[in-house]
């Protein structure tokens, strides 16, 4: 078992690698180098967004990698000021052009912009039916947003990408998504490395002879959560992916679960300055 064969299966049958690389706001040549090193290390899942302003660099790295397009899973997202039906269709074409690709594997609504996200979803359904996105989903949606969306949706979201790490375990949203067969994907899965010195993390890292980051990624993996830790450094990328040679016990998973404080690094979706 390793990076290439650790996958989750979306409700439409599409497979998504369980561990990928996030490239939030990695600029210029940095994103090209980060994606290039990740692909060399065996990563096959890259997560970008229009808002990150680095789709061109991601696309160049993919094209120059020598890896077959169908073997790489690419996600991008529509930003808040691009939402609405027509705007989203246009934004998607722009993203595809910047990436230099014929299709993406996953297209997401980046945030639930009030009064817009249902229209935006209609555009995503059209994009999905066209085959230009192999899967569609949402990001930063809470259960009440998903309930509202599904009142008019013809296609159920396949993924909900949310801020999720041990101090923000998102139990309610995870339970909702599990019930509705929506895969949960974690952004900021390492909590920006801000509490790696937590006693539980330190204790488990010592016990399993792993780093706090590896303990967290493994915790995600055993919970069935897709995770996209961000790193520009090859050695960190390698570390974050080296989680398939050990397994956390049920007792240690419970200890990890108890780190939760419902503490966010980013905005609460209902309080974002839309």
TrEMBL record:
<feature type="domain" description="NADP-dependent oxidoreductase">
    <location>
        <begin position="29"/>
        <end position="261"/>
    </location>
</feature>
<keyword id="KW-0521">NADP</keyword>
<dbReference type="InterPro" id="IPR018170">
    <property type="entry name" value="Aldo/ket_reductase_CS"/>
</dbReference>
<dbReference type="Pfam" id="PF00248">
    <property type="entry name" value="Aldo_ket_red"/>
</dbReference>
<feature type="site" description="Lowers pKa of active site Tyr">
    <location>
        <position position="77"/>
    </location>
</feature>
<feature type="active site" description="Proton donor">
    <location>
        <position position="52"/>
    </location>
</feature>
<comment type="similarity">
    <text>Belongs to the aldo/keto reductase family.</text>
</comment>
<protein>
    <submittedName>
        <fullName>Aldo/keto reductase</fullName>
    </submittedName>
</protein>
<dbReference type="GO" id="GO:0016616">
    <property type="term" value="F:oxidoreductase activity, acting on the CH-OH group of donors, NAD or NADP as acceptor"/>
</dbReference>
<dbReference type="InterPro" id="IPR036812">
    <property type="entry name" value="NAD(P)_OxRdtase_dom_sf"/>
</dbReference>
<keyword id="KW-0560">Oxidoreductase</keyword>
<dbReference type="InterPro" id="IPR020471">
    <property type="entry name" value="AKR"/>
</dbReference>
<feature type="binding site">
    <location>
        <position position="110"/>
    </location>
    <ligand>
        <name>substrate</name>
    </ligand>
</feature>
<dbReference type="InterPro" id="IPR023210">
    <property type="entry name" value="NADP_OxRdtase_dom"/>
</dbReference>
């Amino acid at each position: 078992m390793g990076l290439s064969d650790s996958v989750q299966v979306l409700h439409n049958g599409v497979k998504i690698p369980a561990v990928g690389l996030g490239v939030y706001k990695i600029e210029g040549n940095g994103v090209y180098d980060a994606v290039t090193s990740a692909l060399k290390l065996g990563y096959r899942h890259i997560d970008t967004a229009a808002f990150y302003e680095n789709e061109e660099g991601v696309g160049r790295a993919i094209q120059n990698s020598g890896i077959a397009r169908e073997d790489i899973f690419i996600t991008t997202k529509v930003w808040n000021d691009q939402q609405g039906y027509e705007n989203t269709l246009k934004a998607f074409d722009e993203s595809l052009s910047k990436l230099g690709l014929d299709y993406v594997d996953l297209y997401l609504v980046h945030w639930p912009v009030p009064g817009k996200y249902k229209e935006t979803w209609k555009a995503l359904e059209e994009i999905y039916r066209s085959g230009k996105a192999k899967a569609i989903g949402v990001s930063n949606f809470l259960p009440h947003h998903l309930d509202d969306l599904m009142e008019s949706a013809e296609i159920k979201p396949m993924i909900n990408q949310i801020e999720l790490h041990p101090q923000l375990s998102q139990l309610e949203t995870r339970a909702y998504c599990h019930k509705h067969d929506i895969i949960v994907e974690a952004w900021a899965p390492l909590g920006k490395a801000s509490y790696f010195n937590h006693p539980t993390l330190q204790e488990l890292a010592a016990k399993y002879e792993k780093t706090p980051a590896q303990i967290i990624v493994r915790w995600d993996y055993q919970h069935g959560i897709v995770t996209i830790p961000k790193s520009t450094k090859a050695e960190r990328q390698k570390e974050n992916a080296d989680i398939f040679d050990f397994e956390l016990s049920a007792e240690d998973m419970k200890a990890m679960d108890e780190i939760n404080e419902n503490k966010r690094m980013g905005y609460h979706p209902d309080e974002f300055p839309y």
